[in-house]
Amino acid sequence: MAQPPAANHLTREERAAALQRYYEELSAARKRVVMPLASITLGAFFLQQILTNFTPVMDGLVFEGMTWAYLYGFALFFLVVVLTMIYKSAMDKVEREHRPPHLDQTAAHYDDWRAWESHQATLEADEDVRDEHQRQALIDELRHQHEKEKGL
Amino acid sequence: MSTSASVLFILFVATTLGVTWWAGQRNKSVESHLVAKGAISGRANGVAIAGDFISAATFLGTTGAIILLGFNGFYYAVYIPVAFLLALLLIAEPLRNLGHFTLGDVLATRFRGDGVRASIAMSSIIISLVYMVAQFVGAAVLIKLLFGISYFWAALAIFTLTTVYTIIGGMLATTYIQIIKTCLLLFAGLVLVFMVLAKFGFNPMDVFRRAGEIPLATKATGPIEGSSLLQPLRAGSAAQWEQFSLIFGVTLGVLGLPHVLVRFLTVKGSREARTSAVTSIWIFAGFLILLPIISYGARLLLSQEDFKKVADSRGNLGMPLLAQTVGGDFLLAFISAVAFATILAALSGLVIATTGAITHDIYGKLFHKGIVDHSRQLKVARLATFSTALVAMLIALAVEKQNVAFLATLAIAISASANLPALLLTIYWRRATAAGVAWGMAAGLVAAVTIILLSPIFNPEDSLVKLSSPGLISIPIGFLVMVGVSLASQPKGDALTDADELFERVRFQATTGIDPANPEAAPPHERVAAH
């Protein structure tokens, strides 16, 4: 069975700081890219709908066998593909440059879910043992206090 | 049914049952049943998403619409890549980062009470069921036409196979059957394009040039002098607004359709969700741009008698009859088998999406507050899968003689008017409140249904509302009510601080996939998702 990846040696604070930087970079990239691309998409698409559906400006021929309406329609397909590539490359770049490596060791990124579940079960068992130790320590401490009080 | 059709049909059913058996070996938990344990790769999921949306309605309906209406039919092809680009930009990644099994999970990360989860679960079930009945009826009619069997047996065959795929194989089988179907469909499309172009010296412009010589025609006016199939058809103000409302509704509706959105939950993370959306968009763009060539080829190559059959079937028989004309009975059999595969794969996805809302949101979270035995939940999931398919079939049998074409429009209008505002405002709007989201969803749903009831569909002579596609009215109503009620129910004092903090956490998790409330999320032994 596949073993979970080795934990890295960053401290909790370092991991938190890396994560915060990653969030800020991703948010900034999304703000920079998503609004313009969504606006262009909606604008180009509904402009086509309005021009073809309510006006005759797209009825004419660009050349024989091709109307402006069809040319616009085909251009929309190409526009969508280009915008998709712009978005993907922008987001991939941020992830490549700023994604903290330790995130790839978390559950959501495990290739083998059974390995993850098994690992999780082991940790839960460890937690049970730890809880039992803590409970025992508490009992011992209470007993000790009680004995001290009795001694007094 | 011809011998070649029978052989292809048996081959397809045997292959898909083999996939189902293979998936069944792995379908041992609720996670695998509903979201394939998040184990589907981004590329494979993208192909499956493309398959979900290049359904029989697109494959047969859009080509038929272009054959009959010319450019106006092309509207039904253009909106699909646009809608999925919007889904990529606005929904796909946050959805993957916030969700686990259903859309309800996404809303529940921000709104803790049961009301919002119940609202989106009900809305998802209604949308999927209505959409499923529309697909079921269309599919049974199509199978009846293609294979010459009765409506009842067609519906029963669809029910039986869909149930077997989904109960045994769950989301994993559904996804791989969808992938097989998409590959078959793309291959069929390319073969048809090749054979059509072969008749026109491999010059697509020749197809367009000759189609441009055919005038537009409507039932009311007959052929319109001076017009061309390459031009938009503007058949009066009411028809133009109807057309606009329909496209507006379906474009935004894609962004709220449960059976499409849950596919983004079957991958490991937001990076894979992004790859899924990009892959599907590229397939849409590559395939749909070819539809005018196939459709105009059909218009030019089909005999008068065949064209009449296409018109009588509202365009659905255009592609099969073209296949018969250019490739004989074998190609007809192949296209029919692909159409059958398309129907089964689309219905299976719908059944799984409905099952998720019933099993996870209603049974698991609302009835049992999340404390539920997993093996019992899997049994409930399988029972819900069977019941969902059965209910859809019974309704489809009951409405056999009715015209239910409006149901698909209704489902997608509810999706755009209820689910979309809820998802967008939950993810992006700080001032959204649970009351606002719940009331907005109810308003969007009621508006879509009411407008359909008051439309010419039910009152052809004297309708109060002139639009049969409610999107243009119901979508703004959904958004406005959600915004209005949210503003009127703003929390105050400490509750406002808590709501702001929660919104920041949701933004963080929607962007990175990490729940910041769980500071232990970083090392491997802590989970990412908050579910």
Describe the structure.
The complex is a heterodimer of chains A (152) and B (531). With 152 residues, chain A is mostly helical. Chain A is built from three helices and two strands, in the order αββαα. Chain A folds into two domains: 10-105; 111-152. Chain A has helices spanning 12-54, 68-98, 113-151; strands at residues 61-63, 66-67. Chain A has a two-stranded antiparallel ribbon. In chain A, a hairpin with a 2-residue loop joins strand 1 (61-63) and strand 2 (66-67). Chain B has a single domain (3-216, 236-401), classed as Sodium/glucose cotransporter (Up-down Bundle). Helices cover 75% and strands 1% of the residues of chain B. Chain B has helices at residues 3-26, 30-35, 42-53, 56-69, 71-98, 103-108, 114-147, 151-198, 204-211, 237-253, 258-261, 270-288, 291-301, 304-312, 318-367, 374-398, 406-428, 434-454, 471-488, 494-512; strands at residues 217-218, 222-223. Chain B has a two-stranded antiparallel sheet with strand order 1-2. In chain B, helix 5 (71-98) packs antiparallel against helix 12 (270-288), helix 8 packs across helix 16 (374-398) and helix 17 (406-428) runs parallel beside helix 19 (471-488). The radius of gyration of chain B is 23 Å and the shape is globular. The chains are: A mainly alpha (152), B mainly alpha (531). The interface between A and B is large, with 64 and 62 residues.
Q: State the low-pLDDT regions of chain A, or none.
A: 1-7, 107-113
Q: What would you report as the Rg of chain A, rounded to the nearest angstrom?
A: 30 Å
Span of the ends, CA to CA of chain A: 58 Å
The description of the largest β-sheet of chain A is: 2 strands, antiparallel
H/E element sequence of chain A: HEEHH
